[in-house]
Amino acid sequence: MGxxxxxxxxxxxxxxxxxxxxxxxxxxxxxxxxxxxxxIGNHLAQHRGLSLTAIGLAAHIQSLPxxxxxxxxxxxxxxxxxxxxxxxxxxxxxxxxxxxxxxxxLANGRVVTRTVSYNxxxxxxxxxxxxxxxxxxxxxxxPAPRPAPASVPPPTAPRTPPPPLLQPYTPTEELRRxxxxxxxxxxRHTPGLTLSEGDIGALTPGVAxxxxxxxxxxxxxxxxxxxxxxxxxxxxKLLRHRITALLPPPLPxxxxxxxxxxxxxxxxxxxxxxxxxxxRSATPGHCRDCRTDLHTAV
Length: 298
What we know:
The protein is mainly α. Helix content is 34%, strand content 7%.
C-alpha cells in the first residue's frame, strides 16, 4: 500500500461547549485562565461613553497590584500615549465613577495623591486611606513675616479731569471751518481716526488754536497721526491728549527777535548852590562855573 495523501485541511479548534459559531463577525476562541487574570465587567469593556483609551487604561489599572504607581508621567513612560491623552482618559474614568483621586498630606508634610479604582462604577463612597505613620519630621522654620501691603487708594477716589482745550484768541469762522475739515479728513489717512460729529465739534477749538499759531495743516496732521497705539480703542481721547500736550507756542514777533537795547542812563538836574543855575549831576552841589570860581579864589 502507498502512503496516504492528506487532502483535507486540519480541523480548527473546537468551540467552547455552549458557544454558537456565528456566520459573520467576531468568533471567540476562549481558553480558561488558571492564574494571572483580571475580571473586567462588560459595563466597562463595552461602555458607550468612554473612549478606547479610557477603557484600556481602566483595564490596566484594575490589573495592577495595590500600591502600584499610576501617575500620569509613569503611565506615559509605560505606554505610547502622550501625557495629555492619559490625563484626559483619567478624567473620563473619574467622571464615570471608575476612579477617585484625592490629595492628602502625610505626617512629614509631604503631599501625595491617593487613587481609588472601582471595578463597578460608583459602588461606594470615595475612600481616603489612612496614611502610614512615619518618623516625625523636623519642625519647619517659621515663615518670614510678610511685608505690609501697600496702601491702595479707594476705588471711588475721584480722577483728575483732563486739562481743557485751549481756545483761539480771535476765533473766526474760517479757523473753525478749516479745523473741522482737518479733523474730518483724518480718516482718509488713518481709518482708525474716524470721528463722530460730536467729537469733531469738541476738538475743533483745539485745532483752531494750532492754526491760529501759524501751524501748517500738514504739520498738525502729522502730529495727530504718527506712532498711533495698536489697537486704537479711543481715538477721540487720544487726539484730545495730543492736541493739548503737543500744542506749539505762538510764533515770536519781529520785536521779540531784535537784540536787546541798552537802557540810557538819565542824569538828574540839580540847582547850583552858588548861582542857582540848573546842571546835571548825580549829587547836588555847584555847577562847573562856580566850581572854577571857587578854585580861582583859593
